[in-house]
Amino acid sequence: MPIIEAENLSKVYPIAVKEPGLQGTITHFFRRTYRAVEAVKQVSFQIQPGEVVGFLGANGAGKTTTLKMLTGLIHPSAGKVRVAGHIPFQRKAEFLQKITLVMGQKQQLIWDLPALDSLKINAAIYGIPDKEYRMRVGELTEMLSLQGKLNQPVRKLSLGERMKAEFLAALLHRPQVLFLDEPTLGLDVNAQVGVRDFLREYNAKYGATILLTSHYMADITALCDRVLVIHQGQLVYDGGLDELIDNFAPCREVKVELARALPESKLLPYGEIKALEGQSVRFLVERDLLTRTVARMLAELEVVDLTVTDPPVEEVIGRVFSAGGVL
Ligand SMILES: Nc1ncnc2c1ncn2[C@@H]1O[C@H](COP(=O)(O)OP(=O)(O)OP(=O)(O)O)[C@@H](O)[C@H]1O
């Protein structure tokens, strides 16, 4: 039985429209007019217990709005949603015990206090017995490599440590369903890898279900076999990540730092040039040609530095859209 079910889920935000100037302000005060923004349109999907699903979409596509409906923070305008057997918007205590929402750009830990103090508050809110609390904090501290970090004020932690402490707080009540909105936002590569490793271990250990949004393709490739892609409020893809990448990102991004700048005409033979600034060039190279092209670059150009990555997730999604993204 699915643990997350959305059926024709929709959200329309009414936005008050105001004309500029004093006249506009007066009219706005007495007779408000509204414009409707359809943030999510008839989205349907099911997620089974233990699945780790990536939720992709460009800025403003409707990801956060969907997550807010799934966690009961906002009421859907239409459609049905059930999470862990509950209707989220009722926000029943049994429901809140089963879920958690981590937002990369929001924090629940109190800035000036050690994380341990905030954790004690969470333990009291969720009614976690003292012995169990200590056991869980110990276990999560070890999984997150946060030893010695929970006693100092949160503001003194690095961004990566703070995010891990946020995870500790968000998982203390051992939720079955994790909704993660950009959990690695702004973290350096090492910290991103730390969070990813932790999530993989947590999922394997507790069988938790994870729905994750991220603009970092590496998060999605490391964690998710399945992805949902949303575009302008509509679900345009629900399926395997491999198929998505094969179909829509048949290229790799090659960033090259040259010893000296070269004209575009000298660089064109190596691939599609996405950006050229002085000595820095960003190419898109077909995956089948990657090894050969990189070898040629190293042999024929004066290369100072070269890195190969997946194209940004936005580019992959852009291809899904331009191809009309079919479910
Ligand atoms: N509270 C709100 N009131 C009015 N419009 C909103 C509100 N929240 C979001 N929107 C609009 O709904 C649409 C979807 O926004 P949402 O935040 O869900 O997108 P997103 O996919 O999470 O984007 P991002 O990746 O930038 O966080 C956008 O057009 C946004 O401007």
From TrEMBL:
The keyword Nucleotide-binding applies. Residues 4-257 form the ABC transporter domain. Keywords: ATP-binding, Nucleotide-binding, Transport. GO terms for molecular function: ATP binding; ATP hydrolysis activity. This is ABC transporter. PANTHER family: ABC TRANSPORTER ATP-BINDING PROTEIN, ABC TRANSPORTER RELATED. It comes from the Bacteria. SMART domains: AAA (SM00382). It comes from Aliterella atlantica CENA595. The keyword Nucleotide-binding applies. SUPFAM superfamilies: P-loop containing nucleoside triphosphate hydrolases (SSF52540).
